[in-house]
Amino acid sequence: MKNTKKKLSPLSTAVGRALRRSAKVARKTARMYGTPICIWRDGKIVTEKP
Question: Stretch 14-25: mean pLDDT, rounded?
Fold first, then answer.
């Protein structure tokens, strides 16, 4: 499979940035309150302490 770079629309770029920012805030909040977070790893959903 070739690694070709597609030109993304400004909306797609903004959505990607917003998702990364919200994930960062979610991890920070989970650390602050000591709650686990759910992530996708090796085809499964796993719960981890941040």
Answer: 96
Cα-based distances in Å from 25 to 6, 16, 21, 29: 28, 14, 6, 6
Q: Is residue 2 part of a domain?
A: no
The span from the CA of 47 to the CA of 35, in Å, is 10
Locate the DSSP E strands across the chain: 37-41, 44-48
Q: Supply the pTM of this predicted model.
A: 0.69
**What is the tally of structural domains in the chain?**
1
Using alpha carbons only, give the angle 11, 27, 42 rounded to the nearest 5 degrees: 80
Range of the domain at 19: 10-48
